[in-house]
Design brief:
47% of the residues lie in helices and 15% in strands. By secondary structure, the protein is an alpha/beta fold. It has one domain (16-196, 227-254): 3-Layer(aba) Sandwich (Rossmann fold).
């Protein structure tokens, strides 16, 4: 079900934002919304060709650059921050959206290599992003906002995703800890827990679960539909902007009522 996009106002005019995992899906949509909101945007992803194509496509909306980044590698995250500051002079907002695809096995039989790689990207990679984003914001001496993309799996686990579920739980703990360190510096750190949002990653998860988008949405949400990427992007826009200036250390579900139904 297609949902019309909400109007975007210039809430990020004069701001510089990094969005990871932005070569597709929610990350790409968030980049588009942020550009419409007046931000200068650096999109990061491991997919070079796709990332460069997205940057070219979105350049019609404003100033956007692509930096190839594997967030599980400290030097590449540091390079992402350095390239952002070199290009645009500062860093004000970061949306940490990049994640590894969900695993596909019960905990009793989980693949240890898959577990390690998923944790390296989804959890450690996000922690590295937060670390160096906060360092840059502190060095600037300016306020900043960081949003980590978690999942409602952090509240209500789905079958056969032990590593994914564990990593997303941990992201909320990371967010709370970072908010306590960042708060006194004027750096807010929050999270969003998307529910059933249709994307390449959710399609992969549904395949793992052995169901279809229509069947899953009908039972999983009180709105009986999947969400759209732009609906999550609006939440990131609000948390990234000064409109949420007194919000710190929270996790905002954007889930079509899934948690209240479960």
């Amino acid at each position: 079900m297609e949902v019309p996009e909400a109007p975007v106002f210039p809430l990020l005019k004069g701001k510089v934002a990094i969005i990871t995992g932005a070569a597709q899906g929610m990350g790409k949509t968030t980049a588009a919304v942020f550009l419409q909101a007046g931000a200068k945007v650096v999109i990061a992803d491991i997919k070079t060709d796709q990332g460069e194509e997205v940057a070219k496509e979105l350049s019609a909306l404003g100033d956007v650059r692509f930096v190839k980044t594997d967030i599980s590698k400290s030097d590449e995250v540091q390079n992402l921050i350095a390239q952002t500051v070199k290009e645009f002079g500062q860093l004000d907002v970061a949306i940490n959206n990049a994640a590894h695809y969900p695993d596909n096995s019960p905990l009793l039989d989980f693949n240890e290599d898959t577990w390690r790689r998923l944790m390296d990207v989804t959890l450690t990679g996000t922690a590295l992003c937060v670390k160096y984003q906060m360092q840059q914001m502190r060095e600037q001496g300016t306020k900043g906002s960081i949003v980590n993309i978690a999942s409602i799996n952090a509240f209500s686990p789905e079958p056969n995703m032990p590593a994914y579920t564990t990593a997303k739980h941990a992201l909320i703990g990371l967010t709370k800890h970072a908010s306590n360190e960042g708060g006194p510096l004027g750096i807010r750190v929050n999270a969003i827990a998307p529910g059933p949002i249709f994307s390449e990653m959710s399609a992969a998860a549904l395949k793992i679960m052995g169901t279809t988008p229509e069947a899953f949405a009908a039972k999983a949400t009180s709105m009986s539909r999947f969400g759209q990427g732009h609906e999550v992007a609006q939440g990131s826009l609000w948390l990234g902007s000064d409109c949420s200036s007194y919000v710190n250390g929270v996790c905002l579900p954007i889930d079509g009522g899934a948690l209240s139904k479960w």
